[in-house]
Design goal:
This protein is α/β, with parallel strands linked by helices. It folds into 3 domains: 5-164, P-loop containing nucleotide triphosphate hydrolases (Rossmann fold, 3-Layer(aba) Sandwich), CATH 3.40.50.300; 179-354, Rossmann fold (3-Layer(aba) Sandwich), CATH 3.40.50.300; 360-455, 2-Layer Sandwich (GMP Synthetase, Chain A, domain 3). It has helices spanning 16-24, 71-83, 100-110, 126-130, 154-164, 191-199, 245-259, 276-287, 309-320, 340-354, 360-373, 411-425, 445-449; strands spanning 5-10, 42-48, 51-57, 87-93, 116-121, 144-145, 179-185, 217-223, 226-232, 263-269, 291-297, 329-331, 386-393, 398-403, 433-437. It has a 6-stranded mixed beta sheet with strand order 2-3-1-4-5-6, sandwiched between helices. A 6-stranded mixed beta sheet has the order 8-9-7-10-11-12, sandwiched between helices.
Length: 480
């Protein structure tokens, strides 16, 4: 069953990504006051009052004479998204008012003969809402005044959205959401070679010249019935080496690919080892809260290789970055197809770990045992008490820990707890986070489970009907 598609469009900086996040109930898209942060189409599955649909965030529409070197590409992405949409949310900024760019874009959208709801965003104040009538001249009817930032009138908008969308035929099986992962790494680490190996075709240009891939490429494939969307990205370079405007945007798009993926696969040229730029990429992956699989590529040409070579390399990496202990590390050769199947298995394991509901009672029991085994040290003669712990989020998994003095919890003890949680729940590859808060809001397992289906979060007040698998799925570290 193909889900209905809702596409969010508009000129730059009208709040498209903010509405996208509001619909999903989580920060799935990057929001910035700077124009042009979103460049690609960003797809997620949403659920509102039991109605499931695909929501698409698009880049800001730019005129033909724009100096933006990627303007043509962004426009193509936008209109491809509109063509496949069942409903278009055309967004404008009520504070700025109607602009020539709004009018130009509206004329183009009207020619496509799509269902359109005009959304006047940034209507936090009553005075702003009175200014919305000028947008009638765009030809999409009366604007719906909302605030994606505060949530004002967003539920009313969603009621209208699901009323307009086509109703799926009963009895049809819902289309399974694919696992989305990005292939990352320095230039010439073998990213495009791995992509071609996964797809069994030459979809990406492969060259020994670093920087051949300049854009992020999305491709679909399936393994044993499991669907994947893989993004081959441009190699991330040091800022000092990014010289032209296209490369600057290539880096931006690569970072955006991390944020819209479920799992990131970091390709490392094993003949060079982990370098400073690899650690920067790992930092970006962690900041985005994404799963990580580390691939030591070109293992077939590793010089003076012995049975101990892999262990020695892993030991060296752990000395430089201890948290890699909880990341699947695989030696492989994308060129020869060596252990590529293990990479796919690791992606599935990490994806499952990112979405796991650990169990409220089990988290509480494990936390109590950690404290008993190693009590919290005092700081500056002050007793530090950690009273309780509870998982409060999935994707990424977050465990909140209650304490009256979060500022006094030693970093070494935070690392101890993090290690214990990783080992207790076998969360290899998942970006587990610990929050230390003065007041803990307990979350039920059922509340968390609604977030795991189709990688969704949900708007407040929604009670979706889902058939969820509540079993904890354990993943094991993969090292070869």
């Amino acid at each position: 069953m193909k889900l209905p598609v809702v596409c969010i469009v508009g000129r730059p900086n009208v709040g498209k990504s903010s509405l996208f996040n509001r619909i999903l109930g989580r920060r799935a898209a990057v929001v910035s006051d700077r124009d042009g942060v979103t460049r690609d189409r960003h797809y997620q599955t949403a659920n509102y009052k039991g109605h499931e649909f695909t929501v698409v965030d698009t880049g800001g529409f730019l005129p033909d004479d724009s100096i933006d070197v990627l303007a043509d590409s962004v426009r193509t992405q936008i209109f491809n998204a509109v063509e496949e949409a069942d409903l278009v949310l055309f967004m404008v900024d009520v504070r700025v008012g109607i602009t020539k760019l709004d009018e130009q874009f509206a004329r183009m959208v009207r020619k496509l003969d799509k269902k359109v709801i005009l959304v006047a965003n940034k209507s936090e104040n009553g005075a702003d809402r009175q200014e919305s009538y000028e947008f009638l001249k765009l030809g999409f009817g009366l604007p719906r005044t909302i605030s994606a930032l505060t949530g004002y009138a967003c539920l009313s908008l969603m009621d209208e959205v699901v009323a307009v969308l086509p109703t799926p035929v009963r009895g049809e099986r819902r289309e399974e959401r694919p696992i989305r992962f990005a292939i990352l790494g320095r230039p010439n680490a073998g990213k495009s070679t791995l992509l071609n190996r996964l797809l069994n075709e030459d979809r990406a240009v492969v060259s020994d010249i670093p920087g051949t891939t300049r854009d992020s490429i999305d491709c679909d494939f399936a393994v044993d019935g499991q669907k994947f969307v893989v993004t081959d990205t441009a190699g991330l370079r040091k800022k000092a080496k990014v010289e032209d405007e296209v490369e600057i945007f290539s880096n931006m798009r690569t970072l955006e690919s991390i944020r819209r993926s479920d799992v990131s696969v970091l390709m490392v040229d094993c003949t060079r080892g982990l370098e400073v730029q690899d650690f920067r990429i790992i930092t970006e992956i962690r900041k985005a809260g994404k799963g990580l699989v580390l691939v030591l590529n070109k293992w077939d040409i590793f010089p003076d290789k012995t049975e101990k070579s892999f262990d020695h390399m892993v030991k060296d990496m752990l000395e430089r970055e201890p948290m890699l202990e909880y990341v699947p590390i695989i030696s492989a050769s994308a060129k020869e197809g060596q252990r590529v199947n293990r990479i796919v298995q690791a992606i599935q394991t990490v994806y499952a770990n990112c979405r796991r509901v650990l169990g409220r009672d089990r988290v509480a029991q494990a936390f109590a045992s950690f404290l008993e085994k190693n009590p919290v040290p005092s700081q500056n003669a002050r007793v530090v008490q950690l009273t309780r712990a509870c998982q409060i989020m999935v994707e990424p998994p977050v465990i909140a820990i209650e304490t009256r003095t979060p500022e006094l919890v030693a970093d070494s003890y935070k690392r101890y707890l993090l290690k214990q949680f990783y080992e207790e729940f076998q969360l290899q590859g998942a970006p587990l986070r610990l929050n230390f808060d003065q007041k803990l809001t307990l979350r039920k397992d059922e509340d968390l489970e609604q977030f795991t289906e189709s990688s969704n979060s949900v708007l407040a007040g929604v009670n979706p009907q889902r058939d969820l698998d509540r079993k904890n799925r354990k993943g094991k570290v993969v090292r070869h």
